[in-house]
Amino acid sequence: MLKIWRVLVTGAALLSLAACSPRPQQGTEAASGQASVKRLAWNATKAKELTRFVTAWGNQQGFVYHRYTQAQNGTYYSDAADMPNALIDGNLIAWRKPGASIKVAWVKGNQATADYTLLAAYCNDSNAVLGQSQLLLFTIRAGQPQVLATKQERSNAAGTTVFTPPADAALTKAFKDIWRSGTTAVPDAPVAPIKDIHAATAILQRASVEFAPTKTPIQWNTERIVNTSGGPYHLNVTQPDGSLTVACLDGLHDRLLYRLTPLASGRVRIEARFSTASDSRPLSQLSGYTIALDR
Description:
Blueprint: H1 2-20, H2 24-40, H3 44-61, E1 66-68, H4 85-89, E2 93-95, E3 104-106, E4 116-123, E5 135-141, E6 144-150, E7 161-163, H5 169-181, H6 197-210, E8 244-249, E9 255-262, E10 267-275, E11 288-294
Parallel strand pairs: 2-7, 3-4
Antiparallel strand pairs: 1-4, 4-5, 5-6, 8-9, 9-10, 10-11
């Protein structure tokens, strides 16, 4: 009887140990889950791929998009270079409607810091005219990539800046691809073409500030750009290399020609030349100046 009791107790103990021991299949799943989380972490390689995509995507739109960081902000419809931190710190980011404020915070050590964890921000404000500036925030919400975009020009009664999904779904798709796999299809667009007279005006207006008449004799009469197309200089027609030539009326000469050529570095070369209305000489034969400007 005693032997039988000992056998029963020993058997029960073995069953108990077996039940408490981890099963190989469960251990494999746990390891797989941990690896999956590790793969989804944001890192420098993914950040670089996102910049590569946004740069090429922006080039397609005719804009140079600059990356803003927590330490190095930039402008957005303002002379103050404090975006997006000013919006984040003031809790002034709204989703879809002015009164619907959301909490956004910069990522810290790959850890979620708010409802919307901000991984990267990009803006084209430095080379856009009124109505064309766009601020893009690449965030993670509930573990999922979400792009917030705004083109809001003026403040609203709530004092917020309203963000919506970007009009171009390619931005969201690329961000999801990079978040999940670290790579995405990048457009073949090495430079941002000068697409029209408005883009040229925005660049020349910045040049008029940076290169004042005290630095160069060129008079930046950007308000007098003529809207004529064609002619020997192919005015107001974007060329295959992305360049655009515009003409301004000038009091000292018949006109000033500006040929703006985008460079792969993100800068633009401006060839400013004096000419007459009847000129057909190559631009290289006209007197003037050549400068380069960041976009």
